[in-house]
Amino acid sequence: MSDANDTPRDANGNGVNPEKELSAENLPGQRGQGGEEIRVQRGMFGANNGGDTSGYGGLVRSVRLPGPAARPYGGWFDEVADELEGALEEQGLLPENAIEKTVVDRGELTFHIEREHLVRVARTLRDDPALRFELCTGVSGVHYPNDKGRELHAVYHLRSITHNRLIRLEVSAPDSDPHIPSLFSVYPTNDWHERETYDFFGIVFDGHPALTRIMMPDDWQGHPQRKDYSLGGIPVEYKGAQIPAPDQRRSYS
User: Fold this and answer.
1) What CA–CA distances, in Å, run from 232 to 86, 138, 201, 205, 247?
2) How many other C-beta atoms lie within 10 A of the C-beta of residue 198?
3) Using CA atoms, how far apart are residues 18 and 164, in angstroms rounded to an integer?
4) Model pTM?
5) pLDDT of 191-240, one tens digit each?
6) Is the pLDDT assigned to residue 24 strictly greater than 60?
7) 16 burial class (0-12, 13-18, 19+ CB within 10 angstroms)?
8) In DSSP terms, which residues pair with 179 in a beta bridge?
9) Is the alpha carbon torsion for 52, 54, 57, 62 positive or negative?
10) In which family does this protein belong, per the annotation (predicted)?
11) Distance CA 241, CA 87 (A)
């Protein structure tokens, strides 16, 4: 019979998976530590206007955005950060005025950029010989209703074909002023991606040549992928039963 004292434990005395190394970097839950809490989620599925039938109603977890990383970032991440900061300084722009924070999380390098400097940073990443991020694979919108003053985020994935590297740029804007400069002039392939993000999230990309809806009808009210957008819908008959609209169904949280 094994003794309880033989159970592998971390520095705080908590039991850990014996198949993992006993180091803080390999323990679960490290991603949220040191980051910024933007919400406390209760339940599993979001709705809260009915009885809990799932067993997840008592779930409480903190939703955090990863915090800034400290050097060294590791591998080629430091090289890219150094080259970008040096190139901005050569243009007379202090890096700390353009780069809000640098995040290394889940094996990805993300530069959080002040929106007024987005176009210059993107052009520098594209044109500098030591960087050469020639391809932007699109922009994705994210809505954090509880991230006050920066509820809307735009995330760009940039790839260097020359150096075989992938990084991310992230820009935020408040709901009250949802404007972000368009990157169409730097990466023309962003044309339809910016239209889609505008359509679904309401981010206005200043300088876009034709910022119109791409999925929803032109007269559609609201932006359907925002977290505060009503589920809406209509009742549906299925195998003789009447299924209520999503916003009228029983809650599962």
Assistant:
1) 50, 29, 17, 27, 6
2) 23
3) 36
4) 0.78
5) 999 999 999 999 999 999 999 999 999 999 999 999 888 877 778 888 88
6) no
7) middle
8) 204
9) negative
10) Belongs to the complex I 30 kDa subunit family.
11) 64
pLDDT over 80 at 110, yes or no: yes
Q: What is the dihedral of CA 212, 214, 217, 218, to 10 degrees?
A: 10
Three-state secondary structure string covering the chain: CCCHHHCCECCCCCECCCCCCCCHHHCCCCCCCCCEEEEEEECCCCCCCCCCCCCCCCCEEEEEECCCCCCCCCCCHHHHHHHHHHHHHHCCCCHHHHEEEEEEECCEEEEEECHHHHHHHHHHHHHCCCCCCCEEEEEEEEECCCCCCCCEEEEEEEEECCCCEEEEEEEEECCCCCEEECCCCCCHHHHHHHHHHHHHHCCEEECCCCCCCCCCCCCCCCCCCCCCCCCCCCCEEECCEEECCHHHCCCCC
pLDDT, one tens digit per residue, over 165-185 is 999 999 999 999 999 999 999
Q: How confident is the model at residue 125 (pLDDT cuts 50, 70, 90)?
A: very high
Please give the structure tokens belonging to residue 209. 């040549």
d(CA 174, CA 55) in angstroms, rounded, equals 36
Closest CA to 150 of 203, 199, 211: 203
